Amino acid sequence: MAGGGEELKLLGMWASPFVMRVKLALGFKGLSYEDVEEDLFGGKSELLLKSNPVHKKVPVLLHNGKPVCESQIIVQYIDEAFPSCTGPSLLPTNPYERAIARFWGAYIDDKLLASFLQSARCKTEEEKVEGQKQTAVAVENMEAAFKEISKGKPFFGGDTVGYLDVTLGALVSWVQAAEKLYGLRLFDATRSPLLNAWAERFAALDTAKAVLANVDKLVEYAKHRQAAAAAASSN
User: Fold this and answer.
1) What is the pLDDT of residues 122-149, one digit of tens each?
2) Which candidate, 122, 160, 182, 189, has a CA 20 to 30 Å from the CA of 34?
3) DSSP string covering 154-210, please?
């Protein structure tokens, strides 16, 4: 229960960075909720299929039974639906700054994450090189964005965590897991010192520690999924 008669239920899966994103938002806002774990490979629940009939995927937030889908939309909804809860506002109050935050939030998923995944999952050396090149550009752009938006303070949100901290912070565990799995390092002290320090700072927060998945557990999960996919393709 979120309090005040508001019921929140999150349909998710522990390893999903997009689910972690919603859990981070709920955590930083100080909201309690029922955490419902979905079996995405063994059989999705009727509740999930009914709540997200278009994409049929997690996360889905049920607020008093009404579903909200897509992680960034859910985070924005949480911030707007619970403006007076114990946690800070995640999105800036200034309309222009709010638009900028949403722009970079989309960039994180559409450019940074997409190119990083291409580098990790590519099937040819040419695709790997292209993915790494695009990732380097995306990291450079995010480094510049952090410098401008944070204004020298610890987080994108300034002195406290904001929307972009939650959006990018949800990827931290998988970024660390990818380094162990593929030898790919997204942020480093030489190429992106501000983001590198930010990632360590964010991961050290109590709310982040409570939400972000264990890196070794993610590595084992990824290896298991890769083995299952390889077995399925050989049949």
Assistant:
1) 889 899 899 999 999 999 999 999 999 9
2) 160
3) SBTTBTS--HHHHHHHTTHHHHHHHHHHH---S--TTT-HHHHHHHHHHHTSHHHHH
pLDDT digits (tens, 9 = 90+) for 31-89: 999 999 999 988 999 999 999 999 999 999 999 999 999 999 999 999 999 987 767 89
Same domain for 55 and 145 = no
Domain housing 27: 8-81
Instruction: Please indicate, yes or no, if residue 86 is contained in any of the structural domains.
Output: no
Q: Which residues pair with 8 in a beta bridge?
A: 63
Look at phi and psi of residue 63 and say left if phi exceeds 0, alpha if psi is from -120 to 50, else beta. beta
CB 218 within 8 A of CB 177: yes
One-letter amino acid identity for 86? Answer: T
